[in-house]
Amino acid sequence: MLKFDFFRMNDISSTDYQKVYDQKNEVYEKFHSSDMVGWTNHIDISEVERMIHLSEQVKKESQCLVVIGIGGSFLGSYAVLKMLSNYFNDDSFPIIYAGTTLSSKYMSELLDYLKDIDFSVNVISKSGTTMETMMTYQMIKQLMAEKYDEKEQQKRIIVTTDQDQGILRQEVNQMGYQSFEIPNNIGGRYSIMTPAHLLPLAFNVDIKKLIDGYYQGEQFREEAFQYAVVRKCLANSGKWIENYCVYEESLYYFTEWLKQLFGETEGKNGQGIFPVSMVHTRDLHSLGQFIQQGRKIVFETFIEVEHSNKLLYNGQDLHTINGIVLESVRKAHFSGDVACLKIGLDYLNEVSIGQLLYFFMLSAAFSGYLFQVEPFDQPGVEVYKKEIKENLGVLSY
Amino acid sequence: MLKFDFFRMNDISSTDYQKVYDQKNEVYEKFHSSDMVGWTNHIDISEVERMIHLSEQVKKESQCLVVIGIGGSFLGSYAVLKMLSNYFNDDSFPIIYAGTTLSSKYMSELLDYLKDIDFSVNVISKSGTTMETMMTYQMIKQLMAEKYDEKEQQKRIIVTTDQDQGILRQEVNQMGYQSFEIPNNIGGRYSIMTPAHLLPLAFNVDIKKLIDGYYQGEQFREEAFQYAVVRKCLANSGKWIENYCVYEESLYYFTEWLKQLFGETEGKNGQGIFPVSMVHTRDLHSLGQFIQQGRKIVFETFIEVEHSNKLLYNGQDLHTINGIVLESVRKAHFSGDVACLKIGLDYLNEVSIGQLLYFFMLSAAFSGYLFQVEPFDQPGVEVYKKEIKENLGVLSY
């Protein structure tokens, strides 16, 4: 279950807060009339069963799954996987992520590694035109053609893409690959409950519980709106950077997911809060100085897990000590005039993670409307894509 | 060899630039009269030999080295190690970093892992009072006491600390542990060329070459000052976030090192530039939208490696494609009124990394003086430390 504490701050007057809060009906109306909120609908359970079944099959035939995707087809599953994995002695089924880079070092070392093992591939792109994804997919398919006959390749390639359109869907129809669909009414950064993320997660995570938690998130709608209001007020008062603070390194990629979610939703029209993150206590020894005494443009959102592994240090529970440190840091930063919000989870498990995901997605969408931008597009991404296309010239992928 | 391109921007007039640049003599004077620039002195080569020799001994007796340190006793060696390691099929000697967190999950999983293998420890703390370091050290020593007799423990513990003072130096004198010294005239974030980092690196990196490259960095003093001047001018014009952009995931921790170096050096007195980083092309699909069209408070510094692994995609060199993408992104962001500086390396190897480290340290120190703060202290860190001490009460470490 989630708990919230948004009001340890000096920066906002209750009048300011009320003024922004009063836009609630307007925001909810816009939200409900959007055609991009498919992620609030319930997911087809038979598709979920098919993912689980397929993951069990792949595990029998392969030593790892290579997931090829980037952006909205990468961060969600990667973040959840990391949150639930062990630091050492990890006995989960190996998932390798590729296509998130054009690094020839990464790619050549990966191909070298895959040469000698049996693997399957899940390629994920809604449009089938994502540059990094399609280039990586081609290079890995080339290796598969060297290793496996056609029948074997067919068994080892799983495609997640648009229902009808695009080159990947064509390939599915021609080659008979197994495939899943990304609905039209869900954008990349809001796609955590689509097969783009659920299929890679099915290999190691109880996705049914994750889905349960996700839909429970609807109960935090009021808090999601409050969080968006507080953030908008802080931005109005010159706090233009939000620092997500976690106390567990395994949550780092969850903060990366948050950065994408909020940064891409709000960062338009000269607006938005720049999202950054810190892993405590590590980064207190790095950016802690800046937060405490540097330029006053930062506010913080602490994400705290109430219960964790039991371990005694000098007869005291180490996680309790970690919690005391967290509160001490909040107090110290607050004394340095830094607003310190907090969102708490009881346990770090599938259910609470599901709740957290939904809470933040809801809040990000509301926030977009408060910033008076469209929460579900990303027109700025087209600018560099166009530039790349012009400069790469005839190179096709 | 390093190459620089600092002037793709609209934000600074040449008059503004000259005005800041004219403080050069003053800054150099302050720099040279500081008693914290021991990191510009030459390092004792016999100590370097001792580190290399010791690393060879440890490799024979242990399956891994546990490095216990945080902040300035962690990020430098970790960053360089990552920069030079393979993504897959890594055949380097395993180095495990601990003490960067109070996570009971991390700590209990680590202890569980170490139970069944032979390991050595390098504990690093200048003062011997760093909370996370000393707590972790105690817990790991307890495990060692269960596994090894006293003579064996003595062989497996290596201490890096102050020459004369502190609890760790006392332990060395009592127990006869092997030890190294962190000089008094070098602060944590400027300590990359001390045993705090060179010893852990000696296990996998040619530290003599790294040292060579480092001292070659002195030739880039003028550029280091120029970089500091440009950044200061950008900050004056409202660009309060610097985004370090790399095109290779293995450089991510180097950007973390940069964040510590610049954030902790400048972030005082309500001053400073907030350092963030992006790994391209991955994060173009995340924060790219914000950079292009969001709030105009960001400028970017691209770190580019000219030569990398050879790999062909459709008959074209993949690294060349990555370079074209980098330039396209610079052009696109520049068209969105984002200043785009660039620092280039020919190859990613010990020598060029050494040059890069020195260049940035020099520039950070100059920058502190330009922001009219003391580059080598971190008074804000004491605020939360004091708060923690009060709240943790009698708990001793």
Description:
The structure is a homodimer of 397-residue chains. With 397 residues, chain A is α/β, with parallel strands linked by helices. In chain A, the strands form three sheets. Chain A has a five-stranded mixed sheet with strand order 1-12-9-7-8, with helices on both faces. Helix content of chain A is 49%, strand content 15%. The first copy, chain A, is globular, with a radius of gyration of 22 Å. At the A-B interface, helix 5, helix 6, helix 12, strand 8 and helix 13 of A face helix 5, helix 6, helix 12, strand 8 and helix 13 of B.
Report a brief summary of the structure.
The structure is a homodimer of 397-residue chains. Helices cover 49% and strands 15% of the residues of chain A.
**Biggest contact:** A-B, 107 and 107 residues
> Rg of chain A, please?
22 Å
User: How is the biggest beta sheet of chain A arranged?
Assistant: 5 strands, mixed
Oligomeric composition of the shown chains: homodimer
Shape of chain A: globular
Determine the number of helices of chain A (DSSP H or I, runs of at least 4 residues): 16
